[in-house]
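Notes from hallway chat w/ T.B., transcribed later so I don't forget. T.B. wanted the structure written out for a chain they're using in a teaching module, and asked if we could keep both sequence and structure tokens in one place. Agreed to drop them here.
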Amino acid sequence: MQANNKSRFPNLLLKVKAQYSWDLMYLVLAVILLTRGVASDLIYFLFVGLICVFLFQRFILSNHYAFFLIKVFLIVSIAFEFIIGKIPQEKKDAHEESFSENFFISNAIYGHEMEANKKNVVHRFIVNGDTIYDVLYCTDNNACRVSCSEMNQNRIPNRHAFFVGCSFTFGHGADFEATIPALYEKYSSNTIAVNLGCNGYGPHQNLMDLHQNFENIASKNNIPSKGFMLYSFMDDHLNDVYVDIESSEIKFNQNGGWILTKKRNWRKFVIWLNNNSRAMQYFKVRFAHPENDKFHKYFADIISAMAKEYHRHYPENTFYVGYYPGEVRDTAWIKYCNQNIKFIKTRPPYDLNENYYDYHLQYDLHPTLKLNDYYVSYIFKNVQNN
């Protein structure tokens, strides 16, 4: 009897060894990758997934072929991410970007926003020891960008101009005097221009911001009743709407109204995966907006809803969409917009490509004073003609 027990014990060890050997190999390899300091966020995620599959298989469903395939996929993905991470990359310039204090705060509805009543926030960008820009930002009590110096108090404007958009409108890396709203005031001395741009915003976030805050801005005593609002469009905004994962999602109904909903988790995960995968970065795999009527109509509905928010307060005035010069190619969405919206189809400067860095900040690609001034002069002429 004892002899039989002794003979069974080695057989049991062999069986256990055969059953768990592949799992042990997977885990050991994953641990090696993690402990060698080469793990990206995605590798950590895949490793956790591998552990979960391992535990689920052992304690809930022990014999299922699908688990073997999932484990193989996870370990191959980990190995592939590791290998791609070890491939020598093109040497990048040493970038150093800094703010002297917090300028952006989180917002549960549209992801982030600028903080109100900020004074002389320094934004500096240095590449290889060379300062690309060193500028000051200030905001008023509505978190709109304003001048950090004393303004001319003798001016008595009789028109308004609200400028809505992204970092191009805000003036990323630009002195206040080089921003679109400030330049417009120079062209039209009887106009008060309000900067409603924000770094990193797509038009869906502009719409949420207008819906929540525009009434406070429009009710200011020094805002004349006559004027216009202009949204500056560029192709990147189409992708901003499609791939943004930080803000709520806008859902339109048949009556033209809209509500906010949470973005679907699977979509947020896919976009996160695209942003964090070394392999996708290496092969330059990037998600782009669908080029179909459904998406173009959705984008147009956002722009039309912005115009509607403006016309709730100023029903007799005009809402414009301006083409930012050199940044517009996809205009298939325009035909779905509200017919009351007017478009300023700015032509790019004739020498834009030849003298690109005269019009854009080097290493940063935001516009310089020269390009903003070109754009604003085009806007001014069109507004005057209308």
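Follow-up for T.B.: Residues 2-86 form one domain. Might be a good example for the class.
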